């Protein structure tokens, strides 16, 4: 099986889109991710999968906590930006939720503390406990077949 076939098949799994944020030495870093899974209700655990080459991977090892913002259907531009696909420097006005920087107006903001990490091939899986969350109105941004979609 070649890489392209694998990626194409995985892209047939429709997902939402999140931006993960963390802070190290007073500097906030954000990264777009769709490898996000709800894991456990008691305790409340989620999982994210971060590529070994992503700056975020190194930063999470240092911070051990992060926030997740689930994007709404008007936040495609932010998804592309935090995926490094828009080559310009922007000043992002983050909201503060439970003491952490999060994306404004997104569907859900949650703060998380890393409980465990497992290297899995060229990614690291971070299993984290959700320490607080809030929900806001709106429709989700979806990602399918390498393209952004909306619920119709
Ligand atoms: P960088 O590429 O260095 O940063 C991303 C961008 O955000 C840069 O432009 C940077 O300047 C900017 N930025 C960051 N913080 C700030 C700030 N505080 N203020 C202003 N600008 C800032 N990769 C994974 O590993 N796992 C996934 O689950 C995953 N899912 C993805 C889903 C989608 C829909 C897309 C499009 C990409 C996904 N990626 C995923 C790829 C990942 O988003 C990119 O490879 C990303 O560039 C890696 O982030 P990085 O930590 O290296 O940050």
Structural class: alpha+beta
Give the helix tally: 3
Biggest beta sheet attributes: 7 strands, antiparallel
Ligands bound, unique: flavin-adenine dinucleotide
- Please tell me the overall pLDDT: 97
Shape: globular
Which band does the percent of strand residues land in? over 45%
DSSP helix fraction: 10-25%
Radius of gyration: 15 Å
Low-confidence stretches at least 5 residues in length (pLDDT < 50)? Answer: none
Ends apart, CA distance between termini: 34 Å
Number of strands: 12
Following the backbone from N to C, one meets helices and strands in this order, namely HEEEEEHEHEEEEEE
Oligomeric status of the shown chains? Answer: single chain
Supply the key terms.
152 residues; binds flavin-adenine dinucleotide; 3 helices; seven-stranded antiparallel beta sheet; three-stranded antiparallel beta sheet; alpha+beta
What's this, in brief?
This protein is globular. 16% of the residues lie in helices and 49% in strands.
What is the element layout, followed by pairings?
Layout lengths: L2 H9 L3 E2 L1 E7 L2 E7 L2 E5 L4 E7 L3 H9 L1 E6 L5 H7 L12 E3 L2 E3 L5 E13 L2 E13 L5 E4 L2 E4 L2
Antiparallel strand pairs: 1-11, 2-3, 2-6, 4-5, 5-10, 6-9, 7-8, 9-10, 11-12
The structure holds flavin-adenine dinucleotide.
Descriptive notes:
It contains 3 helices and 12 strands, in the order αβββββαβαββββββ. By secondary structure, it is α+β, with helices and mostly antiparallel strands. It has helices spanning 3-11, 55-63, 76-82; strands at residues 15-16, 18-24, 27-33, 36-40, 45-51, 65-70, 95-97, 100-102, 108-120, 123-135, 141-144, 147-150. The model has no long low-confidence stretch (mean pLDDT 97). The strands form 3 sheets. It has a 7-stranded antiparallel beta sheet. β2 (18-24) and β3 (27-33) form a beta hairpin. It is globular, with a radius of gyration of 15 Å. Flavin-adenine dinucleotide binds at residues 17, 28-35, 49-51, 54-56, 79, 81-84, 90, 92, 143.
